[in-house]
Design brief:
By secondary structure, this protein is α+β, with helices and mostly antiparallel strands. Helices cover 34% and strands 21% of the residues. The chain has helices at residues 19-30, 51-64, 101-108, 145-159, 171-184; strands at 41-46, 70-75, 78-83, 92-95, 120-128, 131-138.
Length: 188
């Protein structure tokens, strides 16, 4: 049986979550798993880096993808996701020596508060004018391997000044569509 296509949902105070998000939330909140569901990345960047351009690229990504403006809350006993319309995003810049790298990376990866967007953090370590480490960490509740690949591709394109096509469907639209399928089929 053909399912109706996913459609954008109107703005609401909150939206349903998927079963995968529920599972991760429960594990994060009640099983004390620390940073097990984090997706940390470290990139070495050699050459000149335009910090303003990089900051703008990250802000555009946060503006473009609601997942980076999403937090998780209980409303009437149900876990829901809330999406902020706007969210200023800044990354931290450290000037460091090679000997400080291990401790800076260890300090960077720390638990997120799932009730506070963004569930993305970025730090840039400048070793000198042409050598940097870009640290990115996001929670798996807002990202997976496929979306991570898209994130990195779009970050690169935005940093290079490219325009990206408009987003028409967001994750909350999928979660709402999925919840309607479950409700209609009595699969609660």
């Amino acid at each position: 049986r053909l399912q109706p296509p996913i459609q954008p949902v109107p703005d609401q105070a909150h939206y349903p979550v998927t079963s995968a998000q529920k599972r991760m939330y429960v594990l994060e909140k009640f099983e004390n798993i620390g940073v097990s569901y984090h997706m940390p990345l470290v990139f070495e960047i050699e050459g000149r880096l335009d910090l303003d351009q990089l900051q703008q690229a990250f802000q555009r990504l946060v503006n473009r993808h609601e997942a980076f403006r999403t937090s998780f809350h209980f409303v009437e006993g149900e876990l829901v996701q809330k999406v902020q319309a706007k969210l200023p995003f800044q990354f931290v810049v450290h000037h460091a020596e090679e000997s400080e790298l291990d401790s800076l990376i260890q300090e960077f990866i720390r638990p997120f508060d799932l009730g506070q967007a963004p569930l993305l953090r970025v730090s840039l370590i400048q070793l000198n004018s042409t050598r940097h480490l870009l640290l990115i960490d996001m929670h798996h509740i807002i990202s997976d391997g496929v979306s991570l690949e898209i994130f990195l591709q779009e970050l690169s394109e935005l940093y290079q000044g490219q325009l990206l096509p408009e987003q028409t469907i967001q994750y909350k639209d999928y979660a709402t569509w999925l919840q309607k399928r479950i409700d209609n089929n009595g699969l609660k």
